[in-house]
DNA sequence: TGTGTTCATGAGAATCATTCTCGCATGACT
DNA sequence: AGTCATGCGAGAATGATTCTCATGAACACA
């Protein structure tokens, strides 16, 4: 998924980056950069919007955060570093990480059958969680 | 995937919409709206950019075209109306439609296990096609 | 702890795809 | 042909993301 990164770029520890990561740790769903920016401001840990974007990008590069590109804006979530997919509530954003070994093999096989190399895949499942279903 | 559409909106046939669909029929990969707009202009079949976007949106609504949201811009491709996924060359855009019954069942099952309803999923496989691999 | 080098920050401008506005043109139907 | 709802196009507007660049802060080292 991520490249081998021969030159591990040094990452400087700052209040802002810590704040972004700490906030993500407390949330259990995907959130947009703008949402996170607003939340940080509410909590007094003000961080510039551009910096939020930069911090998120760095976290994504480091494999600590997953990004989901929906219709308009991208959403970010603190995730485990092992390969997995998501089951996302399209109403409240609540997310469950799910693994599926079969689809991993399937993707590799079907790609090989068609002569494709350097294969990646993306799989996301969307639905309405139990809480949101009963709440309506 | 698509909503029940109680009032099937009538779709008026115009030169522009026909041109967009005809162009898509000739291409075998995903193309952005801007690309299609440029191609139409080159071929003399000039169509306004806003109209290209509107035509594509209509085609998507009608299930004739699939849309792929990459990093920045959305890409469109004439596709068969039956449910399927894509194997896309990340270099030249060439695309193969692939079906995978197992993942359909898996998605439904894992969603149910977690209490999620009204489930959808999106699965795309990216790679470098044989032609692009040898060409480099 | 002081000092210098280097990278990070942030406010606002810039970018860029997409959508909206609105006056005019053109399909569909009688 | 006549009516009328729709579609068209040029340009403005929108909105998320990125860039600019002067200032501030981390970090390595003495
Ligand atoms: Zn929910
Ligand atoms: Zn996977
Ligand atoms: Zn290719
Ligand atoms: Zn499927």
UniProtKB/TrEMBL annotation, chains A, B:
What UniProt keywords are attached to this protein's entry? Answer: Cytoplasm, DNA-binding, Iron, Metal-binding, Repressor, Transcription, Transcription regulation, Zinc
What SUPFAM superfamilies does the entry give? Winged helix' DNA-binding domain (SSF46785)
Which cofactors are named for this entry? Zn(2+); Mn(2+); Fe(2+)
GO annotations of cellular component type: cytosol
Q: Which Gene3D superfamilies match?
A: 3.30.1490.190, Winged helix-like DNA-binding domain superfamily/Winged helix DNA-binding domain (1.10.10.10)
Q: Which GO terms describe its molecular function?
A: DNA-binding transcription factor activity; transcription cis-regulatory region binding; zinc ion binding
Report the cofactor remark.
Answer: Binds 1 zinc ion per subunit. Binds 1 Mn(2+) or Fe(2+) ion per subunit.
Tell me the residue numbers annotated for binding Fe cation: 83, 104, 121
Q: Which GO terms describe its biological process?
A: negative regulation of DNA-templated transcription; regulation of secondary metabolite biosynthetic process
> At which positions is Zn(2+) bound?
89, 92, 129, 132
The residues forming the signal peptide are none
**Where primarily located?**
cytoplasm
Which CDD domains does the protein's record reference? Fur_like
The cellular location(s) given in this protein's UniProt record come to:
Cytoplasm
Quaternary data: Homodimer.
The UniProt family comment states: Belongs to the Fur family.
What protein name applies here? Zinc uptake regulator, Fur family
Source organism per UniProt: Geodermatophilus ruber
């Amino acid at each position: 998924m991520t490249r081998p990164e021969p030159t591990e770029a040094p990452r400087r520890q700052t209040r802002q980056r810590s704040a972004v990561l700490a906030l993500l740790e407390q949330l259990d769903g995907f959130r947009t950069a703008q949402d996170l920016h607003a939340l940080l401001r509410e909590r007094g840990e003000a961080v510039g919007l551009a910096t939020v974007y930069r911090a998120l990008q760095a976290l994504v590069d480091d494999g600590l955060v997953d990004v989901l590109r929906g219709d308009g804006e991208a959403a970010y979530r603190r995730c485990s570093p092992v390969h997995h997919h998501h089951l996302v509530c399209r109403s409240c954003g609540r997310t469950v990480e799910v693994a599926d070994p079969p689809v991993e093999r399937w993707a590799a096989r079907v790609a090989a059958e068609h002569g494709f190399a350097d294969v990646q895949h993306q799989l996301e499942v969307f639905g309405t969680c139990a809480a949101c279903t009963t709440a309506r």
